[in-house]
Amino acid sequence: MADDEYKFVRCYGVTGASVHDIEPHLDLLPEEPAYPDQEAFGDSAYSSKENHEKLLACGYLPMICEKGYRHKPLTEEQKTMNKVKSRVRCRV
């Protein structure tokens, strides 16, 4: 996890190469957000319903890019929101 204000890595985790990074990602977030409705950004690998619900339960506002599927492409609104979410960067 990186702090976008101070540009520091705040915490990290180490796993084996066989572990996908989506599994331990919630362990890196603080148990409670620093302020109400703090956003948690992620790419489409984190777009599962379970992940969304876990972030909400922890008090975070999920800003996860959505992905399209065969025979169910993204709507124009989803594409626009993905652009907004993708623009947030943290230089570390």
Short description, anyone?
This protein is of the alpha+beta class.
Tell me about this structure.
It is a single chain. The chain is α+β, with helices and mostly antiparallel strands. It has one domain. The chain is built from 3 helices and 4 strands; from the N terminus they run ββαβαβα. The longest helix has 11 residues, at 76-86. The mean pLDDT is 85.
Distinct helical segment count:
3
Beta-strand fraction estimate: 15-25%
Between the first and last Cα atoms, what is the distance in angstroms? 10 Å
User: Assembly type of the shown chains?
Assistant: single chain
What does the main sheet amount to? 2 strands, antiparallel
Order the strands across the largest sheet as they lie in space: 1-2
Instruction: Compute the CA-based radius of gyration.
Output: 14 Å
Features:
two-stranded parallel ribbon, globular, alpha+beta, two-stranded antiparallel sheet, 92 residues, single chain
Can you lay out the helices and strands and say which pair or pack?
Blueprint: E1 2-3, E2 8-9, H1 25-28, E3 38-42, H2 49-58, E4 60-64, H3 76-86
